[in-house]
Amino acid sequence: MKTLILARHAKTEQIGFMSSKSDFERELLPRGYSDSILVAESMKSKRIKPNLLITSKACRAEQTTERFANNLGIEPSNIVHEQFLYDGYTTSQLIDYLAQYDDHHETIMIIGHNPEIAMMAINFTDSDYLHFPTTGTISISFNTDKWSEINAREGKIEWFVSPKMLK
Fold first, then answer.
1. Fewer Cβ in 10 A, N or C end of the chain?
2. How far apart are CA 146 and CA 59, in angstroms?
3. How far apart are alpha carbons 48 and 41 in whole angstroms?
4. Per-residue pLDDT tens over the stretch 124-144
């Protein structure tokens, strides 16, 4: 069985016309840091530890990933930074991307952005709608031993958690 965990980055600073930062450079707010730790600790208490973390290269996603990695004990060598997770992608592109990974990775976690994270959760399962607040995290299992054999609409939702559910 393969498990894909999808997470939206944590709460971030707003960007306005007075800001000198680009969307890509937006950083987490203090609440974002604490929410990331809260969700990671929830996963840790359930003994959930991804073999591999894949993150968008946007600042807020990398900061969220750092909190998850630190709290789950994931080594930097097991973290992959990908630009396409910021730029946008389709379900079939993500399926093709995941197919490249060695099958010894039982659980892969992706930290990215909406609307793609929510759409991937819907498209990998048979859900009609999933609300993904910041730091919302979902686990989807696939009845296969190979990443190259996962398909859209074949995943089963194992759990979903958001910071609000944990407070």
1. C
2. 31
3. 10
4. 998 888 889 999 999 999 999
CATH of the domain at 110: 3.40.50.1240
**Helices then strands, each counted (H, E), the chain:** 6, 6
- Distances in Å between the alpha carbon of 76 and those of 67, 140, 153? 12, 24, 32
The model's pTM: 0.97
- Helix (H/G/I), strand (E/B), else coil: 60: helix
What's the CA angle centered on 112, arms 11 and 134, to 5 degrees? Answer: 25
Q: How many domains does the chain have?
A: 1
The answer for 142, left when phi > 0, alpha when psi is -120 to 50, beta otherwise, is beta
Query: Which amino acid belongs to residue 155?
Result: G
Please answer whether residues 88 and 112 qualify as being in contact, where contact means their C-beta atoms are separated by less than 8 angstroms.
no
Angle between helices 59-72 and 30-45 in degrees, nearest 10: 40
Query: Do the beta carbons of residue 161 and residue 35 sit within 8 Å?
Result: no
